[in-house]
Amino acid sequence: MANEQLDPVTFEVLKNSFITAVDQMGEQVLRTCYSFVIYNHDFSSALHDAKGECAAQGNQDIAVHVGTLHFTCQDVMRHFEGDMHEGDVFAINDPYAGGTHFSDVRLVRPIFSGGKVIAFAQSNGHWSDVGGSVPGSFDVAAREMFREGLRITPVRLFSNNQLHRDVAGLIAHNTRDPASIIGDMQAQAQATRVCEREILRLVDKYGRDTIETGLSAVQDYVERAVRQRIAAMPDGEWETVDFIDRDPAGGEGMIPIRIKMTIRGDKVIYDFTGSHPVIGSIYNSAFGTTFSGVAAGMKTFFPDLPLNSGFYRAFEIIVPEGSIVDARWPVAVTGFLMPFEKIMNSIYEMWSRLMPQRALACAFNLEYLLTGGWDARAADKSIFMFYDWLPGGWGGRNGKDGNNCTTASFGTGMMAQPVEGQERANPILCTEMEIITDSPGPGKWRGGAGLVKTSAMLASDNVVISYICDRERAVVWGIEGGLPSMPHGLTLTRADGRTERLGAIFSDVAIAEGDVFTRPTAGGGGFGDPLERDPARVLEDVIDDYVSVERAARDYGVVIRPVDPEICEYEIDAAATESLRRSIRAERVAWAREDPESVAERYRGGTIDVYDVVRRHAVILDWESGALLPESTRQFREVFERRSVSEWAPA
């Protein structure tokens, strides 16, 4: 039996009913929201028990949100202890109270039965602007929260299901799109009411005591299941490190996030000791999102279990105070997603050693493009806020290639935004969106492919652009001998033809009608030695345009001859392939240890390209000037040696 007070059938019905109630919250938000961002699934929901612990998440909730919602529910409870009433809805977006960043605004509704709070419903949505110094509220130069937007500590937003218009107006009119904000408030509040309706329906059917028992029992069930699986693993310690590209306010060199995972019996401990102190940008993570990164990364290896606070009881995290993974008020944290995804991929790497059947290499890094100003296509010149993200490639897996053009590990429930909707709402025209040949990280099982999107500004005034990304230097990596993908970074072409690579992190750059911006997303890292990939698979990749004929030879050692490219007819030269693979095996370790400055010189001279620089030589450059970045190269080579070179069979 799942719990001695519940028979197995009732337990199973309630477990799934709780999840369905949360999914129905999501459906309500999707159908009534005002924001195009929320409409494209940048939202999550949760059902909590009377203690604020998470009892159920939905089936498509965003990974980054899942481990934070119980923290914000409990912060609301602390602020309004003894002062909650039926029909109340509270708002909070405070990252220092366990949230993510100011853009993720949560609405929390207590659910009463018989005059007693038995549960809480919570709806979290990403508002496309919450004020601050730049449109979209992502100012990469911010070192403190005061340039990031409006911090909402717990506040009563609805009483007796009626909106407090004064409070709502105060919040909304401190943003650049108040009408949408008010609409999203109403949508999220109604979503929590849907959950309330479903829980009270269950109360009517089974009784209040049974529902309260069920909310506790589902957490106990998940905790037992996770602990049993952990206990079946060997005790031990595993360590890894991943990097943020740089501190924009500091010197050259990548920013380490170090994790040591320890299994003792039926518990896992994640120790972040040795991680870098907070940096002079928004790329810092408060405790809540660090916790969530661990939860989401680990949950990837337990896909069959529901997610609730029972899962969280099975692990512990240790974070150094004041580090990049434990930023405290008033340190800027809007760009928390950059350390978040490094944490997730690090968790993937360590659990891949324990569960090789589920192993996967590094995924591409989520990127955000934020463009705002005045839309001059109509006489009224209304304000617009273009907030976009792109899919990319996931890492190669043990026995399977990585997923192509998939939304980021940050939140696989998110959708790639349709350009038709974007063009209707914003004076921006998409002129290109296609898969990037050679973007997948090479491996016995290659990474998934990334893509490139190019957009042109139309009639507009006073427009600025910001770009929030990473892995321009800490390039997406492979494991078990696999190779990296490619650097991220945005290129801006002005209307007069001048071109400038702005890179992966900048804010508040003025652009005008006729300017064009192009940004690629990386593929996933490769899994396993690319020289062990079946040449027939490489041939199929060439036919499908995932890999070029040139890089089939340089990365995989497979010589492919075009017969009739117009009809995708190619053939493998088996003898030349065998010879080339022997040659690469004999030389590749020396390539990975070649003098970095000589590599930079050849790149600047045009004799090698960015793929050679990263995949053969493990060198990191300023991709605009070609200048060597010595400290970043040293750091990148250190992990390249461990993840790739050490796994290659001797020549």
The tally of beta strands, per DSSP, is 22
Strand arrangement in the largest pleated sheet: 2-1-5-4-3-6-7
User: What structural category characterises the helix and strand content?
Assistant: alpha+beta
Mean pLDDT: 95
Q: Determine the N-to-C terminus distance.
A: 57 Å
As a percent range, the share of helical residues equals 25-40%
Total of helices: 17
The radius of gyration computed from the alpha-carbon positions, rounded to a whole number of angstroms, is 25 Å
Q: Describe the biggest sheet?
A: 7 strands, antiparallel
Protein name: Hydantoinase B/oxoprolinase family protein
Domain Hydantoinase B/oxoprolinase: 7-530
InterPro entries: Hydantoinase_B, Oxoprolinase-like
Organism: Jiella sonneratiae
Please describe what this structure looks like:
The protein is an alpha+beta fold. Helices cover 33% and strands 22% of the residues. A seven-stranded antiparallel sheet has the order 2-1-5-4-3-6-7, with helices on both faces. Strands 14-15-20-17-18 form a five-stranded antiparallel sheet, with helices on one face. The N and C termini lie far apart (57 Å). The model has no long low-confidence stretch (mean pLDDT 95).
Summarize the structure.
Helix content is 33%, strand content 22%. With 651 residues, it is an alpha+beta fold. The protein has a seven-stranded antiparallel beta sheet with strand order 2-1-5-4-3-6-7, with helices on both faces.
